[in-house]
Every structure is written in C-alpha cells, then in structure tokens.
Design goal:
Elements lengths: L1 H4 L7 H12 L3 H17 L1 E2 L6 E2 L5 H4 L4 E8 L2 H10 L4 E5 L17 H10 L4 E4 L5 H14 L5 E4 L15 H9 L2 E2 L1
Parallel strand pairs: 3-4, 3-5, 5-6
Antiparallel strand pairs: 1-2, 6-7
Helix pairs in contact: 5-8
Bound molecules: zinc ion.
The site of zinc ion has 8 residues, from helix 4.
C-alpha cells in the first residue's frame, strides 16, 4: 500500500506511510467508497467531444449549458485551469482544453496538444472571440504566440489574458481575484 501510494505525484515515502496508516484506521465502508470512487472515475472519465476537458459524459456540463456564450472560447492548458476560471463564477463563455503546451525543449510540438481540434471547432462554429489563457511560462507564451499566428487569417478576434498573472505562474494556484483581473484586462493579439 505504501509503495502504491508513493507512486502518486507529490507523495514521498513519509506521506505515503501516513496515508496508509490513516486508511487502515478508516471505517471499512469509507475505504470501500474511496476505492469505488477512484475506479469509477478512472473508468468513466473521457474527453468532452467539444472542449476536450475531462468529463464523465459525452459533452461536459459547461458545453451542454445553453446559457453559456458559445461564441466565446477560452483556450487553457489543462482541465485544472478550466476549474480555476470556473471558480471565479464570472466567465460565461466556453473553453477549449489543449492538454499541454508547446515545448521544443521537451519535444512537445503543436501536434502533441489539442490544437487541431481547436481549429476544426472554429471552422464548424461561429465564434466571436478566442481568449488565450495559457500559463505565462515560456511554454505558455510560445503556445499563445503560435495560436495567434494560426488564427490571424481567420479574422477571429484573438485576445490574451493580461499579465496580472505572475510570470511563470501556474494558473491553478492563482487566486480568483487575480484571475478575474487578468481576464478583464485581456488585450487583442
Ligand atoms: Zn466541454
């Protein structure tokens, strides 16, 4: 058990031991529910066929919501960034999840992230604005530049969130106020 737990990211040998002992002292029923939740999530989770976020249905609840503005698409690196923006409760558009960022250093090119899917989506639907909300890391900026170049010929308004987000900052760790400020202060690319 300790061995299995210590394979998880951010869990060292000590934490794994602590978790293992904690689980051993949990009521059997709680342990069963935890393990069922894990198995269930892993088995049913898939990509939303519109925005590619992780979900347990064909189309995620955000894409399925008619009240959202489907003509405004925010491009984020992963589902955790989407969740961070959702927590602000202020963004009414929809998303597109890339599942990564372009990184020549790590050998991750444009074809390794869900960029083709974004371009296909833009051909199939009328969109007023694409907001690029990738991280402000080198990879995030490279990706933003690449997308804005791809979108130039389409004539779709392309904006980038403002740099209220600290350089090198991971979106998921930034507080909601900063995220909102970054969204409201976005600039046209
Ligand atoms: Zn979706």
């Amino acid at each position: 058990m300790i061995e299995e737990l210590s394979r998880l990211p951010g869990i060292g040998a000590k934490s794994a031991q602590r978790l293992a002992f904690y689980i051993l002292h949990m009521p059997k029923e709680d342990v069963r529910r935890l393990s069922e939740t894990l198995t269930d999530a892993r088995e049913h989770v898939r990509y939303c066929k519109e925005c590619y976020t992780l979900t347990d249905s064909e189309v995620c609840p955000i894409c399925a919501n008619a009240k959202r503005n489907h003509r405004q698409i925010m491009v984020v690196e992963d589902s955790r960034d989407l969740n961070a923006y959702e927590k602000t409760g202020e963004y009414e558009g929809v998303y597109h999840v890339l599942h990564g960022a372009i990184s020549p250093m790590q050998g991750i090119g444009p074809d390794d992230i869900r960029l083709k899917e974004l371009m296909q989506r833009l051909q199939q639907t009328d969109v007023d604005e694409v907001i690029i909300a990738t991280n402000s890391s080198l990879e995030g900026e490279t990706t933003a530049m690449y997308i804005s170049k791809l979108l130039k010929p389409t004539g779709i308004l392309t904006t980038r969130i403002a740099s209220g987000v600290p350089v090198g900052g991971d979106l998921e760790y930034i507080d909601e106020v900063t995220l909102l400020r970054a969204l409201q202060g976005r600039t046209t690319l």
